[in-house]
From TrEMBL:
This is Glutathione S-transferase 1. Residues 88-217 form the GST C-terminal domain. InterPro entries: Glutathione-S-Trfase_C-like (IPR010987), Glutathione-S-Trfase_C_sf (IPR036282), Glutathione_S-Trfase (IPR040079), Glutathione_S-Trfase_N (IPR004045), GST_C (IPR004046), Thioredoxin-like_sf (IPR036249). GO terms for molecular function: glutathione transferase activity. GO terms for biological process: glutathione metabolic process.
Amino acid sequence: MALTLYGVSDGPPTMAVMQALAYLDLKYKFVTINYAIGEHMTEEYAQKNPQKEMPVLDDNGFFLSESNAILQYLADKYPKNETLYPKNVQARAIVNHRLCFNLSTYYRYICEYALEPIFFTYERTQLRLKRALIALEHLNTYFSKLGGKYATGDKITIADFQLATTTMCLEAINCDISGYPLIQRWYNMYKVENPTLWRILEHGMNQLAYFEKNPPVLASLDHPIHPVRKN
Ligand SMILES: N[C@@H](CCC(=O)N[C@@H](CS)C(=O)NCC(=O)O)C(=O)O
């Protein structure tokens, strides 16, 4: 088995996959993609992922992008237990729902509010804040409906990797989540009960917190979408 992960150590989708690799005790090579100079924009990188995004997993020549798909693949191909990505159709459907919710709503809006203004010249507008708060409200409601210790029940699943990573992005900018007590309780428990996973997140969080205070100048990045700081 030869696993390689292409990513950025402060990139939330990369961190979600790193947690899965750690949880599953899988050895892998990590290749840092230099976002600041647009290493992911090259034709060489596009061979790995035509969307030119991180992360990308290379499992012995099998290339896979989209962090949710990578999490699902790793949990299926290298299972450690029955609980990380349950086989029961309804239990798995709930995990898949939370992964979709993270991608479409929770990460999307929290990234737009917390992260994009760090790396690009966007403002933290009221609209961005409102969407992030609505996303938090929804996740808090999902916790109240299932009532388990983790995001989809009493056991950790691949959905927790994504949701914890997204929640960390708020801590990186010192955003108070005490108005969402079930999220706060789960997030605090997650850190204590999963120290190896938390170390991965804490490392990325410290980098993000540094950039929050020292906004990066990405003068060499010719980004096709986002306005970058040039000086
Ligand atoms: N849907 C993707 C999103 C990945 C993503 O947006 N990654 C960021 C880095 S954290 C990226 O590669 N962005 C490319 C860019 O900004 O040009 C996933 O979950 O894998």
